[in-house]
Write a structure and sequence with these properties.
Blueprint lengths: L1 H30 L16 H7 L4 H4 L14 H8 L8 H11 L20 H6 L4 H5 L18 H10 L6 H4 L2
Helix pairs in contact: 4-5
This protein binds heme C (HEC) (5 copies).
The site of one heme C (HEC) has 20 residues, from helix 2, helix 4 and helix 5.
Length: 178
């Protein structure tokens, strides 16, 4: 027994020393929210409030892939033009930009608001199919000012994990990291 004691103590000490950087990195990612950035101006001030509240469009009318894919998807101009072909543009510079972009076959480069680092795996479909509303993570988008959608929830690692614990979803590292 005696002769195993020293190597064992040595082994434990080495393991603890090795664990410290891992724990520090994990703690840092738990408390920091590197995904939060000041919002960048959008190329067109798109009013969610008007389209959702006044026209009564569902979130998934435009963000079609949310319940089937990893990405929710931002609509192609064709989908906007379904209506905007016939909506008058006079005196509405944002609508003139929209129609000009469509006519000249140019996409609109919407600025991403919510973006996780590449090493994190997120799937919209699983969350939507588990009955979680868009607003639980994105907040009251339907009330946000035109062109001013902001990141509502921090969606850092600690945030993801607390909800996973509450709702009984998996929390092993491989669920969210490749
Ligand atoms: C008529 C189409 C349309 C509808 C309906 C719509 N959106 Fe959007 N959504 C857009 C467009 C276009 C953008 C990109 C411009 C922007 O961010 O303002 C966007 C951006 C977003 C973003 C920001 C994406 C990012 O980069 O992080 C979120 C979140 C979002 N929408 C959620 C919703 C929710 C929730 C609803 C329902 C309450 C909804 N949207 C309804 C067209 C739509
Ligand atoms: C459980 C939290 C959660 C829910 C619920 C959720 N989202 Fe997201 N959403 C995110 C995260 C996290 C990202 C960033 C994903 C990334 O960068 O890979 C994101 C990104 C987006 C984006 C931008 C990029 C893209 O195409 O994915 C849009 C648009 C969006 N969400 C719309 C929606 C809509 C609409 C709903 C409801 C149908 C919804 N989200 C429900 C967490 C959520
Ligand atoms: C179901 C029909 C419909 C769809 C789909 C739709 N819109 Fe609209 N949108 C309207 C109507 C109607 C108005 C009100 C026009 C007005 O006030 O003169 C409007 C208003 C707007 C405005 C405000 C213009 C202003 O200056 O007041 C913008 C910007 C806009 N839409 C962009 C978009 C974009 C971008 C898409 C696609 C992502 C889109 N719309 C999809 C019907 C639609
Ligand atoms: C509001 C609660 C909530 C939040 C916030 C949340 N999740 Fe989830 N997540 C769930 C639930 C519930 C499930 C399990 C759904 C099921 O198994 O049907 C899940 C499942 C997943 C899955 C498994 C997908 C699959 O198909 O295997 C991944 C990956 C995931 N979440 C990543 C994330 C990431 C990354 C974040 C933070 C950016 C996050 N989640 C935030 C509730 C949440
Ligand atoms: C439910 C999803 C989820 C699970 C489970 C998860 N992570 Fe993460 N992790 C994230 C998200 C989201 C980020 C990115 C946070 C950010 O940058 O906003 C992250 C970031 C990280 C980072 C990068 C830190 C940094 O500062 O950029 C490390 C390292 C990490 N996670 C390790 C782990 C380990 C180890 C486990 C298992 C014990 C784990 N994660 C489990 C979601 C998860």
């Amino acid at each position: 027994m005696q002769r195993y004691l020293r190597p064992m103590v040595f082994g434990v000490v080495v393991l603890i020393l090795l664990a410290i950087p891992v724990v520090l990195i994990a703690l840092r990612s738990f408390f920091l929210a590197p995904t939060e950035e000041p919002p960048k101006p959008q190329p067109i001030d798109f009013p969610h409030a008007f389209h959702v509240q006044t026209l009564g469009l569902d979130c998934t009318f435009c963000h079609r892939e949310a319940s089937t894919e990893a990405d929710a998807g931002v609509p192609a101009l064709e989908q906007c033009m379904f209506c905007h072909k016939v909506v008058p543009t006079a005196g509405k510079p944002d609508l003139q930009k929209l129609v000009n972009a469509f006519d000249s076959n140019q996409p609109i480069d919407w600025m991403r608001v919510t973006q996780l680092p590449d090493h994190v795996h997120f799937v919209h479909a699983t969350h939507i199919n588990a009955g979680i509303a868009c607003q639980t993570c994105h907040g009251p988008v339907q009330d946000m000012a035109a062109g001013k959608v902001y990141q509502y929830r921090n969606l850092e690692m600690g945030d993801c994990i607390s909800c996973h614990k509450e709702m009984g979803a998996r929390t092993d590292c491989s669920v969210c990291h490749y």
